[in-house]
Amino acid sequence: HQQTFLNQLREITGVNDIQVLQQALKDSNGNLELAVAFLTAKNAKVPQLEEATYYQTALPGNDRYISVGSQADTNVIDLTGDDKDDLQRAIALSLEESNRAFRETGITDEEQAISRVLEASIAENKASLKRTHPEVWSDSPNPYDRKRQDNCPVGLKNVGNTCWFSAVIQSLFNLLEFRRLVLNFNPPANAQDLPRNQKEHRNLPFMRELRYLFALLVGSKRKYVDPSRAVEILKDAFKSNDSQQQDVSEFTHKLLDWLEDAFQIKAEEEREGEKPKNPMVELFYGRFLAVGVLEGKKFENTEMFGQYPLQVNGFKDLHECLEAAMIEGEIESLHSENSAKSGQEHWFTELPPVLTFELSRFEFNQALGRPEKIHNKLEFPPVLYLDRYMHKNREITRIKRDEIKRLKEYLMVLQQRLERYLSYGSGPKRFPLVDVLQYALEFASSKPVCTSPVDDLGASATASGTLTTQTSPSTIEQQGPSSSDVPSTSPVQRSVIHKPFTQSRIPPDLPMHPAPRHITEEELSVLEGCLHRWRTEVENDTRDLQESISRIHRTIELMYSDKTMVQVPYRLHAVLVHEGQANAGHYWAYIYDHHQNRWMKYNDISVTKSTWEELERDSFGGYRNASAYCLMYINDKEQYLIQEEFNKETGQMLVGMDTLPSDLRDYVKEDNKRFEKELEDWDAELAQKAQQEKLLSQIPRPPAPSPAP
């Protein structure tokens, strides 16, 4: 388990020093996120001069720039001693520096701290790019640590930045129909006579290794298996460096292309003269109709698609992404006969049983000259109804879209009105109108209690006990003798202190708190009545606006909930998650166990139970730098996709090794024998060590020499 964490730390942070990784894991008490924070903070402590010293932040609407971290510590105060004056001077200097920096730049200390964090993040990203060698997971010497427990799913070993391979393969393996197709694939009899380009693609050798890998995932006694042979064949297809982490969508495209080619060869061999059916195409590919207007001319095109790409930026949920992807340009022209506007709509005419969405979470930053990851939150449902995007429902969908558009326009008007009630005023500071009226009512109802500022000064001085000796003579005469002066019979001689403010410039009496100076009972009664009535009216208007907005939101949410629009359900089967930045990171998968009705987390060699709440936290995005990268939905009405296999003669369900063809069954048995031999050798080695320790303990030790007199 510790080795798993170490490899994940190495892969995420790019740190190769095993001692540093172990120390970070120890300091974080096994918390992976905390260990990553330790390591990235450590890497960012000594940033490059050109990127840390002159990290510049542009002020909005201004050509001035500020430099964070470039100022020298010109005023340094030693606080290691006990001198309290040094502490006071340090506090004063800190406040002065903070205020001066804010006056000069308009940037607060908090904003500068954020800039430093961003600076450290840049250093972390650059450090992650320096990884040049693939990291391989090392096996525990104890084979019992690698033994499969009961019928727990088998994991896949990371053989060098291959978490992308594990995430995709496990998602496909847990599609039982796909698993059956791969396991029961028989290579063409004339494989040696195939055209040269087919051999160059090496899809048939990869298919053979994929069958072996799937067979081990079914029946191995190991906790995890090694996919090196299949990975090596795949890596030849990528022109990039072997150590570079592959893009999930790129790999999935390549994988499906190879499988399609392999099954196509087999189909053509079995159906000579007939148009062969490719099971990979039927499983993963669908069709959509593009209907549009180009320069005033209408057109229709039918296109095939596999993985459907969706933009993430600017959308809050999967339906918004799909709506934007299905409509391009000005579509009003599609409903009228005479128009020169251009635009098009996409309508699904045939959906595949397995529907995969690619979420475009990476974009190229032109200013920085590098790709960046989009961490925006994007929600997606466990069950997705696709009726609104089907060509057969296009007329109903268009009507509903127009209605939603009208409701959203009306909603915007209501929200603007509500904003005027909740943020009232013409100045920079605004307050809810209800509160403004309440404040006005409280002000009008206040009674002016007047007193002199001198009285306030005397009262505060008496209360604090610090200014009693400075009280004016007039105040002393009014207060009379104190209790301490009662026993004395002689008058106390008091010196008169001249105070220009209290004696020469006494202002007129001022109220203790804001209140009307001159208002009659009749005026107050009329004003209170108006303010009460207006406040009630504003409260009612605000409540009505909020209720109307809620009703419209609810109407929009339920627009597609009628029976005609919930006939094409697709259930979420797998979520492929990426954690990290655009240039580096880690992949894992959440896969739904349709028979146990629970989510499982497949993270390389680790396979654990999970929950929808954990999936949401890691997949929706917006919470940290982990988010869904690929969504795999399956047709909820096509039960054969996830249905177990049954014996045709006995009718009993086939499980484990019984589901494998004879050649793969023998292959798995041989591998299990080798693993059992490892267990036996380990037991024999432990028994031998125990025997040796026992013999050593039985050897009599010579008596200790007696001390010299």
TrEMBL record:
Sections of the chain in a coiled coil: 665-692
Chief place of localization: cytoplasm
Leading EC class: hydrolase
Protein name: Ubiquitin carboxyl-terminal hydrolase
Protein family: Belongs to the peptidase C19 family.
GO molecular function: cysteine-type deubiquitinase activity; SUMO binding
Pfam families membership: UBA_8, UCH, USP_UIM_N
GO CC annotation: cytosol; nucleus
Reaction it catalyzes: Thiol-dependent hydrolysis of ester, thioester, amide, peptide and isopeptide bonds formed by the C-terminal Gly of ubiquitin (a 76-residue protein attached to proteins as an intracellular targeting signal)
Keywords: Coiled coil, Cytoplasm, Hydrolase, Isopeptide bond, Nucleus, Phosphoprotein, Protease, Repeat, Thiol protease, Ubl conjugation, Ubl conjugation pathway
Compartments (UniProt record): Cytoplasm; Nucleus
Region (Disordered): 464-493
Biological-process GO terms, alphabetical: protein deubiquitination; proteolysis
Subunit structure: Homotetramer, inhibited form. Homodimer, active form. Interacts with ACTA1 (via its C-terminus); the interaction occurs for all isoforms but is strongest for isoform USP25m in muscle differentiating cells. Interacts (isoform USP25m only) with MYBPC1; the interaction prevents proteasomal degradation of MYBPC1. Interacts (isoform USP25m only) with FLNC (via filament repeats 17-18, 20-21 and 24). Interacts with GAPDH. Interacts with SUMO3; the interaction sumoylates efficiently USP25. Interacts with SUMO2; the interaction sumoylates efficiently USP25.
Annotated function: The muscle-specific isoform (USP25m) may have a role in the regulation of muscular differentiation and function.
Every USP domain range: 154-636
The EC number(s) this enzyme carries: 3.4.19.12
Low complexity biased stretches: 481-492
InterPro entries: Papain-like_cys_pep_sf, Peptidase_C19, Peptidase_C19_UCH, UBA-like_sf, UBA_8, UIM_dom, USP, USP25/28_UIM
Entry's transmembrane regions: none
